[in-house]
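Hi support team,

I'm opening this ticket because the web form for multi-chain structure prediction keeps timing out on my end. I have pasted the exact lines I submitted so you can reproduce it. The total is 328 residues across two entries, so I didn't expect it to be a heavy job. Is there a limit I'm missing, or should I split the entries? Thanks in advance, R.K.
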Amino acid sequence: MKWLLMGFVLFVSSVTLAMVDGHKYTFDDPYEADRFRQLAEELRCPKCQNQNIADSDAPIATDMRDLVYEMINEGQSNHEIVDFLIARYGDFVTYTPPFRLSTFLLWFGPFLLFVFGVVLIIGIRRNQTLPRQAGLSDDEREKLHAILEKAKQS
Amino acid sequence: MRPLLFVPLLIFVAMAVLFWIGLGIEDKTSLPSPLINQPFPAFETLSLERGESITAASLTNNEPTLVNVWATWCPTCKAEHAFLNDLAKQGVRIIGINYKDDDYKARQWLLAYGNPYVWNVPDPDGRLGLELGVYGAPETFLLDADGVIRAKHIGDLNDRVWERLGQQYEALKR
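Hello R.K., no limit was hit. The queue was backed up. Here is the completed structure from your submission:
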């Protein structure tokens, strides 16, 4: 009896449940459950544009979750699953956009802005420091001299 | 002249251009389909109306064809149905995909509101819809005579949409 119970507990704990959608998607391998969770969070619901398919209640999100579950169980890689969906729904379905000319700004925009900011700061600093290093011009020095002389005399 | 003075202006212009493009996209809910200029995905099943054998190859019958994804649970499909009936009367070849629906209900619906479709592909579990990247009915694909997808419209067909899509359709006739 004791052994039976222990066996049962072992069996139960070996089945990992993906957290998405209650207890619908079960995996024997916790690694695959992780993959499922990760993919469901990475894939975007085309109907409800600001949700991933893990969060969305839209029927299409349910279909896509079922599909991802099925494809994981068929032994397909994350890459294959994402490519399959991109071929049908477009780049939109993934939150990680591909490298392409049209996505150049998306990937490098922040970096370009950073470089632009650094250049800007250097430019401003130089503008501020240059006149100080130059000191007074000859004209200004003469004027200063005159004022000081005047002050001394009065 | 200090060139740095123009930096805020340049930033403003760059932002304005980006917003102009971004806000100018008319309908953000319709996504570009990667299936444009791809052959229609293969399928093989029995038609909804008469149960004859149908495949992707029998879709076009050598003329440009509209493939309309619809369902009885979809209110917008009801709204566009009269327009589809009109198109069919004008001689436009329309094939239906009855998407995630009940065959019996679909037949009743067609009896009640008229049937603009040459025949319908029953797609009760949405598998064909998935192959087509369908995410909300109604959606309409325009196929050329060779069965290659040339355009996709998401949402109902109406006069305004047909102004553009109809031109593409006419251009595909030979």
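A quick check on our side: Chain A has a mean pLDDT of 83. Let us know if the file doesn't open in your viewer.
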